[in-house]
Structure formats: C-alpha cells, structure tokens
Amino acid sequence: MNHPRPKARLSRALGIPLTRKCVRYLERRPFPPGVHGRQRRKTSDYQVRLLEKQRLRHQYNVSETQLRRAFDEAARGAGKTGESLVALLERRLDAVVHRAGLARSIYQARQLVAHGHFTVDGRKVDRPSYRLRPGQVVAVRERSRASAPFQLAAAGANAAEGPARPYLSVELPELRATLLREPARHEVPVLCDEQLVVEFYSR
Fold this sequence. Notes:
The chain is α+β, with helices and mostly antiparallel strands. The protein has helices spanning 7-14, 22-28, 45-59, 64-76, 81-90, 93-99, 106-114, 148-154, 194-202, and strands at 118-120, 123-124, 137-140, 168-171, 176-179.
C-alpha cells in the first residue's frame, strides 16, 4: 500500500525509521512533525495502542484491511496471537524479498513484486501479499536479472539491512531465497510491542 506522506515525516510521527534514509532525519528531529511536535502531550491508553498498531502496519506497508484480516487469522490459530500475527506478516512475499536483501526497503520490494520481477517455485507471482510456505523458493526472473536494482542486490548493496534471518536461506549472487521455516518472533527485526496491537483489536 503506497502512502502519500513523505517517509521521513511518517517516521517522525511513528517514532521509528521506516527506511535507512530516515534514520538521520529522525536523529536530527526526534519529535513528531508539525508546529506542536515539541510540545508534551498527554497520551491515553488508546493512543498508545493505536501507535503500536500503526507502527506495525507501516513497517510492513499494508493497509488497515490487510492487517485486520491477518489479525483475525492469527486469533483463530494456536499459540500467542501477537507472535502469530508477526509471523503471518513476515511470510508475505514483499517482506521476504526485503529481508533477503533483494530490495533496499519494503516499499521497493512491494513495487518490484507488483511489476512481476519475481517467481515462487518457478512460477511468476506479482502479488505482494502472497504468503509463502516453508520450503518455497523466491527468485528473480531471468529477464529481470540484468536490471540495476538486482545487480546492486547481487553485489550485496542491501546487506546493510542486517544479517540474514535464520528462517531464510539466501543466495544473493543467484538472486534467490528460500523460506526454511516459520519465523519466530525474536528473529523478526520489527520495532513493535505486538501485545499492544492485540489489545487494540480486542478492545
């Protein structure tokens, strides 16, 4: 879901950097945007839970409808709802592309997937919300490999996002990644208290 607000302004509103470029903007102005951004405001329990929900939503670049649908599915399953919710979001195709280092941000990952540059188990998939199952292989299509974003990815330009996730097997030179298993919550680098998200939707 493309958000019209500038990412730096949105990052300041949420209090977390949404892209690598936003890190320095947030360090320079670590307060919400707007003329009243520096003022101390009283926060209610609702505002605290709403902020956590918005943080989770924007880190995965999903719409409110998509997040609510994922929450309902997580609530129906076994285990802790918050951890299941994060695991479901982490298995989205655009999230796996981003974590594997095949895109520099979740926004670029969504665009590249939507433009049809990826295959899953050899078949073209252009839905960012496609949910991977353990064992499935994501790869860049042959006709797309020569383009600049993927040449940079193959050279490790996006590896600064962090070490490879233990639930992923990544072969950057081959522009390929395999989801080995369900991601555990402590392995997912998402800045969010998922329990507050559960409380927000359960109110």
